[in-house]
Design a protein that fits this description.
This protein has about 625 residues and is mainly α. It folds into three domains: about 40 residues; about 160 residues, Alpha/Beta hydrolase fold, catalytic domain (Rossmann fold, 3-Layer(aba) Sandwich), CATH 3.40.50.1820; about 350 residues, Growth Hormone, Chain: A, CATH 1.20.1250.20. About 60% of the residues lie in helices and about 5% in strands. It is built from 26 helices and five strands. It has a five-stranded mixed beta sheet with strand order 1-2-3-4-5, sandwiched between helices. Strand 2, helix 5 and strand 3 form a beta-alpha-beta unit. The longest helix is centred in the middle third of the chain and has 33 residues. About 10% of the residues have low confidence.
Length: about 625
């Protein structure tokens, strides 16, 4: 449903329409088509009506009052049940869909209450007025239509808890439903919902004949016929605050203001940007021998371009990470893009070994930081409980790189020459980076906190203004105290790589880095050496050499798809053992949680498996 809202809702920019909505459409179709098939009218209608007939026929229940409540498609069947004598005594339908006008509404013979939002994408406000007109003419049956201001389709069951207006409308619709049931069953058999507060100013009620229980406790003396003409604007006993009250405890408030869909899109974009570091490394493996011949140098010298690329790949993030943590992710993405593509242009035009060596190091400096940036973005918006899956997802592009890049590189080098490898990287990276720089929001917590603080003007994207304006309309104002505190700390200076290297002084972190470094070193040693050996011993051309990288990439993808889920599963297992409830999008106190054990129990078996595979090569 969230995907459907995003798909059918207004687009904040043309890029959303062109790039994101086709993806959302495919995702929605994949879930909606099977659902529609399983819940088609020919299947569902007999079940519902047969059940109600059985209840009416059962000696135990035949004399009891029977009410029906339906939402969306279910609302249609509740309304249809209210069209027949002997089915139900009353019904409540919230945001019904797939209704025929005016036939479905003309046939109502049982008391019915309907709740609809005034921005419902299924039933427009003009249709709501027509429905009100039809029901108003039915003098012999009690009906009520309530229109909830600002409420979208589905608000009664899936209101956004961060939207005060939606939540209030959903709660009030539940009270109406409960009171309807009470009116059907009678005081002795109904639902005890306690005293009902007057509806707030966000609700417009249009009544025909009043269902008695709906107005109990409202002290309303407006006659029914007059109520049909009147928009009710009764203040609540305790008016809501102009500004929402947000928890001050860092462990109780939402970790990020971004929705699940927005988080997925942000992580996907960051993951795509991280593709270019491993791609730049591996794309010319199949061409190493050809390049050595064209530049008249030895294989050892060509392999040196790979070695120095990897050296810079390890050093550059120490500089950029410090900038990213202080100035934000977006400025660093912009710097990486310009450095990377300046090097690509130079590499595509050069025919000299020295130029190749130097420009490859520059290219590495521009691409290598995108991997750490992707992981940083995940840490900005995802809690520890969900981080394993998202980290694995963020790593997918980096894992696909070593699999796809050699195959692409082999085909390009075989048919277009190795110089075109760098033109390809220029074109492909521009296709990813330009939308990223235009639309991806800043996520760095030292700049935007949980995403509710607007970033500096020069670091905003094209949709930031729209997003913060929409939050303001919902009453989610910026915490000016927090904003001022962040602005005071915000500074851009010369990067200090030693600040990043300080993590090595932590023994546990150093062990993890050494293990990871050895694993990556083995991977690149095998990849680089195999390309040269296979070319010489088997006389393979660049395209044939590229195919040997497919199994490596396939194994990496399989690992990414499984390891993240295993890590999250083990996290939940330990939380359950300790009696801790895992709450998504909430930062939780992990001081007494064995987080290292939860991670290493999954990591160690994979590490041993990788070591055994290297020894077998």
């Amino acid at each position: 449903m969230e995907t459907m809202d995003a798909l059918l809702g207004p687009s904040p920019s043309w890029a959303t329409t062109v790039f994101y909505k086709p993806v959302w459409a495919v995702k929605f179709a994949g879930a909606a088509i099977p659902f529609i098939a399983r819940n088609r009218d020919a299947v569902v209608r007999p079940r519902i009506f047969d059940f109600h007939r059985a209840v009416r026929a059962d000696p135990v229940t035949k004399d009891l009052k029977l009410g029906s409540t339906g939402y969306c498609w279910g609302g249609k069947y509740t309304i249809h049940l209210c069209q027949e004598e002997g089915m139900v005594d009353a019904g409540f339908a919230a945001h019904p869909s797939k209704m025929a006008f005016p036939e479905d509404w003309n046939k109502i013979v049982k008391p019915l209450a309907v709740a609809i939002g005034d921005v419902d994408m299924v039933i427009g406000i003009e249709d709501v007025k027509r429905i009100e007109g039809v029901l108003r003419e039915k003098k012999d049956v009690e009906t009520e239509v309530r229109v909830y201001e600002g409420a979208k389709h589905g608000f009664a069951v899936r209101a956004d808890p961060k939207d005060e207006g939606q939540t209030r409308s959903a709660v009030e619709s539940i009270v109406v439903m409960a009171n309807t049931n009470e009116g059907v069953a009678g005081p002795e058999k109904g639902v005890d919902v306690g005293p009902t507060e007057p509806q707030n100013k966000d609700v417009v009620a249009v009544d025909n004949k009043e269902i008695p229980s709906l107005n109990e406790g409202h002290d309303s003396e407006i006659p029914s016929e007059e109520a049909a003409q009147t928009a009710v604007d009764v203040p609540t006993s305790e008016p809501p605050s102009e500004t929402p009250v947000e928890p001050t405890d860092e462990y109780s408030r939402a970790y990020s203001v971004f929705t699940v869909t927005q988080k997925k899109m942000i992580v996907t974009t960051a993951s795509l940007a991280s593709l270019f570091s491993p791609m730049a490394t591996a794309i010319y493996y199949p061409s190493l021998t050809t390049m050595a011949k064209d530049l008249h140098v030895s294989d050892a010298k060509i392999n040196l371009t790979v070695t120095l690329f990897l050296v810079i790949q390890g050093i550059a993030p120490a500089f950029f990470a410090d900038i990213a943590d202080r100035a934000g992710r977006r400025p660093v993405y912009a710097m990486c893009y310009f450095i990377f593509n300046a090097a690509n242009i130079g590499l595509a035009l050069q025919n000299n070994y020295t130029a190749l060596l130097i420009l490859r190091m520059v290219q590495s400096a521009g691409s290598s930081s995108t991997v750490s940036l992707a992981n940083g973005v995940v840490g900005d918006i995802i809690t520890s409980a969900e981080r394993g899956t998202y980290i694995a997802f963020a790593s997918l592009a980096g894992i696909f790189g070593p699999m796809i890049a050699p195959v692409l590189g082999g085909a390009i080098a075989q048919y277009a020459g190795w110089h075109f490898l760098f033109w390809f990287q220029l074109i492909f990276s521009s296709a990813v980076y330009i939308p990223l720089l235009l639309f991806m929001p800043e996520t760095c917590r030292s700049v935007v906190d949980d995403g509710s603080i607007p970033p500096p003007y020069w670091s905003r994207n094209f949709t930031d203004a729209v997003r913060h304006r929409n939050r303001a309309k919902r009453g989610l104002v910026v915490d000016t105290v927090k904003q001022e505190e962040i602005r005071k700390k915000y500074r851009i200076g010369f990067p200090n790589p030693l600040a990043t290297l300080r993590v090595v002084t932590d023994r546990a972190t150093a062990i993890i880095l050494i293990c990871t470094g050895v694993g990556i070193g083995c991977f690149y040693a095998i990849s680089t050496g195999a390309a040269t050996v296979f070319s010489k011993h088997y006389n393979f051309n660049p395209l044939q050499i590229s195919l040997m990288f497919i199994p490596i990439g396939a194994g990496s993808v399989l690992s990414a798809l499984t390891s993240g889920r295993l890590i999250d599963w083990n996290y939940r297992r330990h939380a359950h053992r300790l009696g801790i409830t895992v709450v998504k999008n909430k930062r939780q106190d992990l001081r007494n949680f064995p987080i290292e054990t939860a991670r290493l129990q999954v990591g160690f078996p994979m590490l041993f498996l990788a070591g055994a595979a290297v020894l077998s090569c």
